[in-house]
TrEMBL record:
Secretion signal span: 1-27
Pfam family, one: Tyrosinase
UniProt organism field: Syncephalis pseudoplumigaleata
Organism superkingdom: Eukaryota
GO molecular function annotation: metal ion binding; oxidoreductase activity
Domain Tyrosinase copper-binding: 63-243
Protein's recorded name: Tyrosinase copper-binding domain-containing protein
UniProtKB keywords: Copper, Metal-binding, Signal
InterPro entries in the record: Di-copper_centre_dom_sf, Tyrosinase/Hemocyanin, Tyrosinase_Cu-bd
Length: 284
């Protein structure tokens, strides 16, 4: 199995339909939605989000949720350790967000501010048994509680489980993550895209995957809903850096490079307030 910083491409077949992105110049959004930190949501809105995920997971397998996992496995080397890391995941999250809305979610994809919880991540409410569940159990470290513990991922092998193995020194705890201050300093000191992307992807981003551990540290991590909340914060941190005067900053490859499998240029993702993105983040 492939870890997040590995360079091996999985031999998986993608079944999601690829669509061509067509964006008129300066495409304007009819409305702008706000992605909130998951604790900011009302109980009803948060449950609407959870229910949409469960509805997607409950469809005949391989279902749309399974195929999001498969896509992350299949295009791992095109989406990690390369300039496309941030734009690829922005588009990936947009498509997941749309799928959630199609399955009844009343709110845009939220984020988990793990930087705010960095010194005791396991105490964050997302790890409550009534939310996304606690540490993995048993010899396979499968997640056995939380609202999604019944989900059995189809990929990489059918009827598997998603697992966690917290890396703290005390059982059931997670070692420290990178703090809000660290992220802010990296944003302020990074004068070009390559510096920011390299500095962020291999530290703050990767640390969350490796700290939660087990299957969350591999390319199968989208099986765990925490992945989507984590990467929503990753996208927020990029948006914050862009707001420092780097909206169109990209490199060292061309902003015209295509993101696979969608055949859209990286530059099409740069503005979250333009079509088809149409969102901002709270607390910016």
């Amino acid at each position: 199995m492939k870890r997040l910083l590995s360079g091996v491409v999985a031999a998986a077949t993608i079944l999601l339909t690829s669509t061509i992105f067509v964006q008129p110049a300066d495409a304007k959004c009819a409305s702008i939605l706000t992605r909130h930190e998951i604790r900011e949501l009302s109980d009803a809105d948060r449950q609407s989000f959870f229910d949409a995920v469960k509805k997607m997971q409950g469809e005949k397998q391989p279902n749309q949720f399974d195929e999001f996992i498969n896509q992350h496995i299949t295009y791992s080397t095109q989406a990690h350790g390369v300039p496309a890391f941030l734009p690829w995941h922005r588009e990936y999250l947009r498509r997941f967000d749309q799928a959630l809305r199609d399955h009844g979610s009343a709110v845009p994809l939220p984020y988990w501010d793990w930087a705010a919880d960095s010194q005791a991540p396991e105490t964050a409410p997302i790890f409550h048994p009534d939310w996304l569940g606690t540490n993995g159990k048993g010899h396979n470290y499968c997640v056995a509680d939380g609202q999604f513990s019944n989900y059995k991922p189809y990929y990489p092998t059918p009827n598997g489980c998603f697992s966690r193995r917290f890396d703290g020194d005390t059982p059931g705890t997670i070692g420290a993550l990178y703090s809000t201050d660290f992220v802010a300093e990296l944003q302020a000191s990074s004068k070009d895209y390559d510096t920011f992307r390299r500095g962020y992807e291999g530290t703050a981003h990767a640390r969350v995957h490796n700290a939660i551990g087990s299957s969350f540290s591999y390319m199968t991590s989208p099986a765990d809903l925490i992945f989507w909340l984590h990467h929503s914060l990753v996208d927020k941190h990029w948006a914050e850096w862009q707001a420092l005067g780097h909206t169109n900053d990209y490199g060292p490859t061309s902003p015209d490079e295509k993101l696979v499998p969608w055949d859209i240029p990286a530059k099409a993702t740069f503005d979250t307030t333009a079509e088809p993105y149409c969102y901002v983040y709270s607390n910016m």
